[in-house]
């Protein structure tokens, strides 16, 4: 009886660790780069995103002390 309990516990741990690894593999990284065509101080994330979309990126947001427009995409 004790051996069945130990095997069941080991199987449960294996399932938990396997599912955790599968979740981490599906998470995508987001890369960012400064916009080449955005002019001025970045105040609105929506304006930044619109400019970044014209540059071929999937998103954009204002970042940093200098409030620069950073374009983002999935790497």
UniProtKB/TrEMBL annotation:
Record-annotated Knottins-like domain positions: 30-75
Keywords: Antimicrobial, Disulfide bond, Fungicide, Signal
Residue ranges that the Swiss-Prot or TrEMBL entry lists as coiled coil: none
UniProt GO BP: defense response to fungus; killing of cells of another organism
Domain of life assignment: Eukaryota
InterPro entries: Defensin_plant, Knottins, Scorpion_toxin-like_sf
Signal sequence range: 1-28
Xref: PANTHER family: DEFENSIN-LIKE PROTEIN 1, DRO1 PROTEIN-RELATED
Protein name per Swiss-Prot or TrEMBL: Knottins-like domain-containing protein
Gene: Vigan.01G066000
